[in-house]
Design a protein that fits this description.
Two copies of one chain form a homodimer. By secondary structure, chain A is of the alpha/beta class. Helix content of chain A is 41%, strand content 20%. Chain A has a five-stranded parallel β-sheet, with helices on both faces. A four-stranded antiparallel β-sheet of chain A has the order 6-7-8-9, with helices on one face. In chain A, strands 10-11 form a two-stranded antiparallel ribbon. The interface between A and B is medium-sized, with 26 and 32 residues. Chain A binds a DNA duplex through helix 6 and helix 8.
Chain lengths: 221, 221
DNA sequence: TGATCCATGTCAGCGATTTGTCAGGTCGGT
DNA sequence: ACCGACCTGACAAATCGCTGACATGGATCA
């Protein structure tokens, strides 16, 4: 993925660019506001890392002009000044996230991944198994195109089973991943939950493997 | 698509026109500022490729007069002089992109495609979802064309939800992006805020996904 | 200065949904 | 036929989100 890094301090720019390249991004760098604005307005980037303290045009102004021109790429703001008010300014200008300096490189990478994923937007992440679909963006499942309302716990169960479809998932594993804990088992809450989901999605969706756990088959007949 | 190429050097004009025609455009050529101005003002072109070094009227002056007359076709500026300052001048005059000579023909084509594409979606900077509109430039919201007055916080909420429409946004994410913090939650301020926005924009605009968060549905076509 | 307005947070109570528990019932394998 | 694993329906408790009323605090204006 192609990134634009806007940073006037050459040392920092080199460090960050190096880390981003090591993480597999293609990085272009702008050193002042004018250049940043021009590149961001004319080229297509998967994301922008934008330092606020710039010579030339202020970073926030650059961002605002991009947004005013309809540029929608995700933007991660970097700034030395960490005030709450400024963060809100950044968000108003259309930033997607905000990272105060100094920061650890892993955090930059994590936040970048997060905003890119969130922004990946219209490329909906949909998991399909047989005639049931899981739309992770809308947190909704549908059966043969009919959307079904699931409660949060039900959704987590379906989501986990669907992402591990074609494999038997033990009750213990489900306990860990659907509820937070892994223990205290004198409850049949999970079985009840499975029952409720079956009532909504139809009984064939989740198979019982007596003594082993549950499974959503890869492609039901 | 019909293009206007403004270039006084016959050799370059022929080269560029040839490449553009090979790429499937219909090309008309102007050789001086007066002719360019007249054609651009009276005919309809999908885009203009405009050389700045012209006899007669200067290219920038031509562009400014077009814009002053309300001509909005995308314009790509060509110039031998490559300073950032001049780029910015051109952009202030209303150019959509800028290409310094010498250039590779593929780059010209790429930039042309880019400005044409961007110009096609020029309703942008306005986000539309269903019958509500968000004008990010003016920070205003309207429903079915009727402008609505929102308080700063209400605007931030709507703006964030609209920029991420079609996706469920958790209360925590909203807390972070509407207020500055992600902490201290024994408050229902966000729910109250949502309620107030609904009272102004109508109850269907923001969907509640109990246990998940809120969502503004994608505009149905 | 005081009166007033507006934006925003807090609180309490409601109604609906969600979820755990329990008490049988069913099913499958030995 | 038996046993344990699993299912089902019913109920109660907990949780969630909405609403109206009120409190606070800053800005504005007479």
């Amino acid at each position: 993925m192609r990134l634009l890094l806007v940073e006037d301090d050459r040392r920092i720019a080199a460090d960050v660019a190096g880390a981003l390249q090591a993480a597999g991004y293609v990085v272009e760098t702008a050193r002042d506001g004018e250049e940043a604005w021009f590149l961001g307005d004319t080229e297509d980037y998967g994301a922008v890392v934008l330092d606020l303290g710039l010579p030339g045009m202020d970073g926030l102004a650059v961002l605002k002009r991009w947004r005013a021109n309809g540029r929608t790429m995700p933007v991660l703001i970097l700034t030395a000044r960490g005030s709450w008010a400024e963060r809100v300014d950044g968000i108003d200008a259309g930033a997607d996230d905000y990272l105060p300096k100094p920061f650890r490189m892993e955090e930059l990478l994590a936040r970048l991944r997060a905003i890119v994923r969130r922004n990946a937007g219209h490329a909906s992440s949909v998991v399909v198994a047989g005639d049931i679909e899981l739309d992770e963006r809308q947190m909704r499942v549908s059966v043969r195109g009919v959307p079904i309302t699931l409660s949060p716990l039900e959704y987590r169960l379906v989501s986990y089973l669907l992402r591990h479809r074609g494999r038997v998932v033990s009750q213990h594993e489900l306990d860990e991943n659907v509820y937070g804990h892994g223990e205290d088992h004198d409850s049949n809450a999970l079985e009840v939950l499975v029952g409720r989901v079956r009532k909504k999605l139809g009984p064939e969706v989740i198979e019982t493997r007596r003594g082993f756990g549950y499974m959503v088959p890869e492609a039901p007949p």
